[in-house]
Amino acid sequence: NDENKVSIAAAGGIELIVAAMHGFPQSEGVQMNACAALADLAENVENRVSIFTTNINKHGGYNLILAAMRGFPQSEGVQASTCAAFFSLSKNAMMRLIIAQYGGIALVVAAMRDFSQSEVVQAAACAALGSFAGNPGIIASIATADIIGLIVAAMRRFPQSESVQTHACAVFWQISRNAQINVQSFTDLGVFKAIVSASDTFPHIHKYRFFNFQRQGIIYHVINSLFLVSM
Q1: Quick one: how far is CA 63 from the chain centroid?
Q2: Which end of the chain has fewer CB atoms < 10 Å from its terminal CB, N or C?
Q3: Cα distance between residue 31 and residue 177, in whole Å
Q4: CA dihedral 105, 98, 166, 80 (to 10 degrees)
Q5: 3-state SS string for 51-69
């Protein structure tokens, strides 16, 4: 719970985790578990700042997470936990910009490609992209046909995964909030169909059907997608 997260940080837990990552860069287990721990701790607002600013021999927490992704590209566990860490850290506007600047988005997308059959990686990667997409300054690097195609593919591959479906829809929601949608591209890539299908399976996703799409004046395309899915 949040109280435990605060207590762990106050006792020096973040510094110890970052030090372990710095001390054991070749250990897949240390990197995976450390990133998973940082992902959980970063759910607390103050802890995000601590993780971002903690520096062990000039190696900050976010640098070490990036290094772990690059160091273990074939590790499902490391890729999932690092994506989860970026999801939590990128809830802070400044942090998401810096992580993106240092290649975070490209690493998350690479994880989606390399672990297309992994539900946990796909869910964590979509979650991270959703956090990144909350910044209008970097939305253009996410709202591409390539990345949108990967997200739709994840939704089709894991139709019964609530985590994948929720986080994938959240990416599209953020895109619709922060960028002008290319309606034809979204239609061709199957975005509207995927959102409607997800909301039929998981009712809490229903809000993503209309909210920003209606604001952008393209409600017809969502309704049309609903009709096509029901056929």
Answers
A1: 17
A2: C
A3: 34
A4: 60
A5: HHHCEECCEEHHHHHHHHH
Which pair of structure tokens corresponds to residue 211? 């909210």
The tens digit of pLDDT for each residue in 26-48 reads 999 999 999 999 999 999 988 98
Q: Count of CB atoms within 10 A of residue 182's CB?
A: 13
Residue 170: both structure tokens together: 């959240």
Q: How many Å apart are CA 92 and CA 104, to the nearest integer?
A: 14
CA–CA dist 195, 187 (Å, integer): 11
Here the tokens at position 207 are 């809000």
Q: 114 in helix, strand or coil? A: helix
Helix axes 2-10, 45-53, angle to 10 degrees: 30
Residue 219 predicted with pLDDT over 80? no
What gap in Å lies between CA 65 and CA 5, rounded to an integer? 19
- Residues found in the chain: 231
What are phi and psi for residue 55, nearest 5 degrees? -130, 120
DSSP label of 190: T
Q: Indicate the residue type of 102.
A: Y
The answer to whether residues 62 and 21 touch, using CB atoms and an 8 Å cutoff, is no
DSSP label at residue 102:
T
Provide the CA 101 distance to its chain's centre, in angstroms.
16
Full-model pTM: 0.87
Distance (Å, rounded) from C-alpha 102 to C-alpha 63? Answer: 9
Q: C-alpha angle with apex 192: 186 to 193, nearest 5 degrees?
A: 125
